Amino acid sequence: MKVLKRISLLAVVALGLVLFACQKEDVKTTEKNDLIPQKVIEKISSLELNTDGVTKKYIEFLDGTGKEMYIVEGDIAIDPDKLDNIHLYDGITGEQYRTHNLVNVTGSKRTITVIGYTGGSNALTPKMKTGLEWAINNYNRLGLDLKFELTFGTDYDDKDIVIYVKSNGSGAIAGFPENGNPFWRVIVYSDMDNYNENVLEHVIGHEIGHCIGLRHTDWATRQSCGGYSPEPANPYGAVHIPGTGTGYQSDSYMKACFNGYENGEFNSDDVVALKYLY
Fold it and tell me: Terminus-to-terminus CA distance in the chain, angstroms?
């Protein structure tokens, strides 16, 4: 059991996105949905994403609203209303692997404000709060040009990233940067409270990694998920980060699926990737 790591508080900015990526506990199969329009399949294919088994799922937001999203490769959700405006080369600013979109850093540093939500049924549990604190500490102790300031409460409108709970599920969902800003929300499913703080540290830290532009380290094989729905090998949607390995890393923060024995810490390539990008 870890002693609660001391968190250093810092500052903020940001907003939205369309692509979501979630970390799942294990292999889950999906059936091909013949009701997905062919033009949607063709657009998804143009983004260098695997079109096998595309489905739809209702994603509920913190304010009680929600909408159906296309679920691609088992763990990426795309807003149907924004699909036509997504392109391979949107906003490159500059694994491990990264997305084309990263968080812009103006000057020498940028502070990202993160709030752990504490209101009603969407409140993080005590274990989730601890896992979030540990995850934020992991990023901040690296001395990156991105710094994270963590608070807890319900006033999330001016925060860059809000992290909250939704019921009936395991794993978590986040998204990729857009317009130079981190993705603004991480949904942690309620069944995650069955895991210890180290696993929560890993899963929440993984989703924060997506928010700032990291892709799965095993995108080509999804080996951590048992080889379920591998993503296509191409240089566009998954850009290799120099100085990091390309083989399977069972201890990486950014592997696609997690287990109940995660220690919550970055491996050496995770650190190299983050320091290269930020």
Answer: 30
User: What pLDDT is attached to residue 244?
Assistant: 77
DSSP string, 162-181: EEEEESS-SSEEEE--BTTB
Q: Which of 23, 15, 70 is nearest to 224 (CA)?
A: 23
Q: Is 275 helix (H, G, I), strand (E, B) or coil?
A: helix
Task: Please give the DSSP secondary-structure letter assigned to residue 205.
Answer: H
Residues in the chain, overall count: 278
Q: Count of CB atoms within 10 A of residue 96's CB?
A: 30
Can you list the residues of the chain whose pLDDT is less than 70? 1-34, 47-50, 73-77, 86-100, 219-220, 227-239, 245-247
Residues 6+ apart with CB under 8 A from 228: 27, 28, 29, 74, 222
- What's the burial of 202, exposed, middle or buried (CB within 10 Å: 0-12/13-18/19+)? buried
Residue type, 48: E
Domains, the chain, in order of start with CATH, read 25-85 (no CATH), 97-277 (3.40.390.10)
Which pLDDT value is given to residue 73? 64
Hey, is 131 helix, strand or coil?
Answer: helix
CA distance 10 to 147: 7
